[in-house]
Amino acid sequence: MKSLMIQGTSSGAGKTTLVAALCRIFSDKGYTVAPFKSQNMSNFSYITPDFEISRAQAIQAFGARCYITPDLNPILLKPVGNYSSIVYLNGKRFKKMHAQEYYKKFVNVEGMKIATKSLKTLQKNFDLVIIEGAGSPAEINLQKYDIANMKIAKKANANVLLVTDIDKGGSFASLVGTMNLIDKKYQQLVKGFIFNKFRGDIEVLKPGFKKLQNITKIPTIGIIPLMSLNLPEEDSLNAKPKNMIFNKKNILKIDNELDKLSKIVKSNMNINSIEKMLQ
Question: What pLDDT, in 10s, does the model give residues 39-91?
Fold first, then answer.
C-alpha cells in the first residue's frame, strides 16, 4: 500500500489531468490503482442509481481501470450560490450548508472522519492510491479547514508532487511562495515539482530549475507540454465544462484520450523517480 499526492500552486494547474495520466501509467505498469479526492467542489458529477461523485474522479478511475465507488470522492460540494452548497457524503445527498457552517462546524470533525475512512479503505484494497489535492495548499486563511491537501497527505503518508501552470506565468515564484507558506511540518512531504502546460525552448528554463532547487532543495521531475485534450473539464477558472452522458461511446473516447495523455506525461516526467518514492 503506497500513496502519491498531486497538489497545485493554484486551481487549474493541471492536478486532475495529471492524476488521471498517472493512474493510467501505473495501471499499465501492473499496479492496482485508485484515484482519491477527499473533497471536491463541482456541479458536474458521475451519477448511478446508488451514488453520486465528482465526474473528475470517475474519469480518473477509468484511467486507473478500477471500479467507481463513493470512496473515490467521499465529500462532494455542489455550489448553489449565496456561499452555500449541497453537500454529498459517501455519494448520498446530505444537506445544504452555508460555508460558515461547513468550515466551522463540520469539516474538521465529521468531514475528516469520512475522508479518512474512505482513504483507508482504498489503501487497504489497492497497491497505489493517487490523491488529488484541491486549489492550493498555501491558502493561509483556510489552512486550518483544509482537509483536501496537506492534512490528507499526512494521513496517507503520501509523497507530494507540486504542479504549477507555467503558461500563466510566475511559476517559479508560485512554487517558492507555496513552499514558504506551507507549515514546516508539511514541507518535507513535497518531493518534486512539475511544470505543466509548457511551450517553448526548454533550455531557457533549465537555469531556473537549478536556482529553484538551490532555494527549495526540491528537484523538478516533470515538464509537461501544453496539449489539446478532449476530456470533460471541471468547473474551475476559465473552464467551460459541458454535461456528458457516460455511455459506451463516450467512455471509449475518454479511454483513448487517457492513453494519449498518459503517453505524453510518461515521456515528459521522471516516472522512475516517482516509482522509487513509492518503494
Answer: 999 999 999 999 999 999 999 999 999 999 999 999 999 999 999 999 999 99
Is 179 within 8 Å of 218 (Cβ atoms)?
A: yes
Distances in Å between the alpha carbon of 106 and those of 99, 168, 196, 198? Answer: 10, 34, 34, 39
| DSSP-based three-state secondary structure for 143 | helix
DSSP string, 203-223: HHHHHHHHHHHHHHS--EEEE
Domain count, the chain: 1
pLDDT per residue as tens digits for the range 238-275? 556 667 788 889 889 999 999 999 999 999 999 999 99
Residue in the structure block whose three cell numbers are 471536491: 40
Closest CA to 33 of 2, 3, 64, 68: 64
Give the CATH number, domain containing residue 157.
3.40.50.300
Q: Would you say the pTM of this structure is higher than 0.85?
A: yes
- Its domain, for residue 185, covers 2-277
